[in-house]
Amino acid sequence: MKIQESAENYLEAVLMISRRQPDVHAADLCRHTGFSRPTVSQAVKELRADGYLNVDGDNHITLTDKGRAIAETILERHEVIAEIFMDLGVSRDTAYADACRVEHYISQETFSCMKKRWRKT
User: Fold this and answer.
1) How far, in Å, CA of 14 to CA of 98, rounded?
2) Topology adopted by domain 74-119
3) Residue 2 pLDDT
4) pTM above 0.85, yes or no
5) What is the 3-state secondary structure (H, E, C) of the chain?
6) What's the pLDDT at 119?
7) Domain edges within the chain
8) What are the two backbone dihedrals, phi and then psi, of residue 62, each rounded to the nearest 5 degrees?
9) Tell me, what's the pLDDT at 75?
10) Structural fold of domain 5-69
């Protein structure tokens, strides 16, 4: 099932934050995304209802298996596309910002070819 770009961004953010620190809270997502607490809270509520996130009694946010699969896919796309852009001479900040937009719209076929060509894997 295809989910919206904003939902993919939240899942990716949870994954990225969880790799830097042991617990993820809504405040961490606010800092990461730049969105307000009510906006983040609503997104977390919807992603939880759709089975992409869990929130425990201490308000720790974790990815479900379904959410983790999407987050890992999006993060990989983000990293590979940014690498390609930087290899082409784009500055790091611009490469990552542009990759964040592109990652949601290219086909799996195109991404696979890009990854194969640049990562040689």
Assistant:
1) 20
2) Diphtheria Toxin Repressor; domain 2 (1.10.60)
3) 58
4) yes
5) CCCCHHHHHHHHHHHHHHHHCCCCCHHHHHHHHCCCHHHHHHHHHHHHHCCCEEECCCCCEEECHHHHHHHHHHHHHHHHHHHHHHHCCCCHHHHHHHHHHHCCCCCHHHHHHHHHHHHCC
6) 72
7) 5-69, 74-119
8) -130, 155
9) 93
10) Arc Repressor Mutant, subunit A (1.10.10)
Query: How confident is the model at residue 104, as a pLDDT?
Result: 86
- List of long-range contacts for 99-104, beta carbons under 8 Å, 24+ apart: 100/9, 103/74, 103/77, 103/78, 104/5, 104/8, 104/74
Model pLDDT for residues 52-97, shown as the tens digit of each residue: 999 999 999 999 999 999 999 999 999 999 999 999 999 999 999 9
Please, is 110 exposed, middle or buried when counting C-beta atoms within 10 Å of its C-beta (0-12, 13-18, 19+)? exposed
Give CA torsion, residues 70, 111, 88, 20, to 10 deg.
Answer: 20
